[in-house]
Write a structure and sequence with these properties.
Layout lengths: L6 E5 L13 H14 L4 E7 L9 E4 L23 H12 L5 E4 L4 H6 L7 E4 L7 H13 L4 E3 L2 H5 L8 E2 L19 E4 L8 H11 L3 E4 L5 H10 L5 E5 L3 H8 L5 E3 L9 H8 L4 E4 L4 H4 L6 E4 L4 H9 L6 H11 L2 H20 L3
Parallel strand pairs: 1-2, 1-4, 2-3, 4-5, 5-6, 6-7, 8-9, 9-10, 11-12, 12-13
Bound molecules: 7,8-dihydrobiopterin.
Length: 362
């Protein structure tokens, strides 16, 4: 069924400008949401903090102070709003222009957009981008799920479960422009690790493994916690590390595709794992802790290996079995489950329900 062309406003995360890497996976998710919807004839406008870069879409840049990142706060943290917050400035803009849109999509993992939902006339679709972290945010997410059924989506089931949802919800997983990722049949000797370099991502376990095995490790990602990065290098001065930096997708995949495998060593309940589907898109098997979104992405023994969380020995065992994985199967899984078309199907199914409910005056 072809829905008519929707006008959709995407309001980004307030923790940093698009293109800075501070928004982590949300940056890629927002870009691929816009691409997959545009591919279907919908009209997209993006609202994001000043300094954002986003090729190919109308971008409204909003000034203001970035929001403190939620993962550094305690579970009983109070709700914060810095002075001249870009978060409230973005949503003030959204309120002013809402009549021009059929739907607004919220990408912020913050209390305010959820709290504002009943005060908006245009429906808001909320994409929850992390697992439960702060009780005050959990409560407002569950309140919106109860009052506006069907409007809240998660990345994956393990993440959604951390909120103890009482109502049905959508899982979006993720999607990529697969044309930007080139399959590689014959890798080099190195392994790869990708992500924000911060404690919750567990880089030290990947470094411990390559230090033990003497296998080079390519590291891609933004150094978000410099002390954490320095500490790892001090603890493993001889580890064969090859830090590649925070790269554009084109430069990233040119290096990633050469990897024998991607190691995912996340400490926290990784909501999804965009880096896992980027690896699969290049034919790179994923060796991951059996935890969170990656555990729902990797087909154990077929497109990678799932190992006991926080056990370096498990990673070593999986690396020894990499030859059992067919790299073409990895690319095929990405094409079947994470193409812009497959992702767009999940998005438009989610949106159709919200727009229909609101137009029924629900
Ligand atoms: N913290 N307060 C806050 N708001 C966000 O939107 C947010 C965050 N921390 C991390 C983050 N978003 C993204 O990097 C992850 O959701 C992927």
């Amino acid at each position: 069924m072809l829905e008519n062309s929707w006008k959709i406003l995407l309001i980004s995360t307030p923790v940093g400008p698009l293109g800075s890497g501070l928004g982590g996976g949300v940056e890629l998710s927002l870009l691929n949401t816009a691409k997959s919807l545009k591919q279907r004839g919908h009209r997209i406008t993006v609202v994001a903090p000043q300094g954002s870069v986003l090729d190919g879409f109308p971008l409204v840049e909003i000034p203001g102070q970035f929001q403190p990142i939620a993962q550094n706060q305690s579970r009983d943290a109070l709700i914060q709003l810095p002075e001249n917050a870009v978060l409230s400035n973005m949503w003030d803009y959204g309120r002013k222009v809402q009549e021009d849109y059929d739907l607004i999509v919220n990408f912020a993992f913050d209390w305010l957009p959820f709290y504002l939902t009943p005060f908006f006339t245009t429906p808001i679709a909320h994409w929850v981008s992390m697992a439960s972290l702060i009780t005050a945010i959990d409560q407002v997410v569950l309140a919106v799920m109860a009052q506006f059924p069907g409007t809240v989506a998660f990345c994956a089931h393990n993440q959604a479960a951390t909120f103890h949802p009482e109502a049905p919800y959508t899982c979006l997983f993720g999607g990529l422009d697969l044309n930007r990722y080139q399959f590689c049949q014959e890798p080099g000797p190195a392994l790869a690790w990708m992500g924000r370099i911060a404690p919750e991502k567990g880089l030290e376990d990947a470094v411990a493994v390559v230090d033990q095995l003497g296998i080079p490790l390519m590291i891609f990602g933004k150094i978000q916690d410099a002390d954490y990065w320095q500490d790892i290098q001090r603890r493993y001065p001889d580890a064969p590390l090859d830090y590649r930096g925070f790269l554009s997708t084109d430069a990233l995949q040119a290096g990633l595709r050469e990897a024998r495998a991607l190691l995912m060593t996340h400490r926290w309940m990784e909501a999804f794992g965009n880096v896992a589907i980027e690896a699969l898109a290049c034919g790179v098997p994923v060796i991951s802790y059996d935890r969170g979104g990656p555990a729902e992405i990797v087909r154990d023994g077929e497109t990678g290996w799932l190992v006991e969380p926080d056990q370096v020995a498990g990673l070593v065992g999986a690396i020894a079995r990499l030859d059992e994985i067919d790299r073409q199967q990895c690319r095929t899984q990405a094409e079947q489950e994470y193409s812009l078309t497959a992702f767009g199907d999940r998005l438009t199914q989610w949106f159709r329900g919200i727009i229909a409910a609101r137009s029924d005056g629900a």
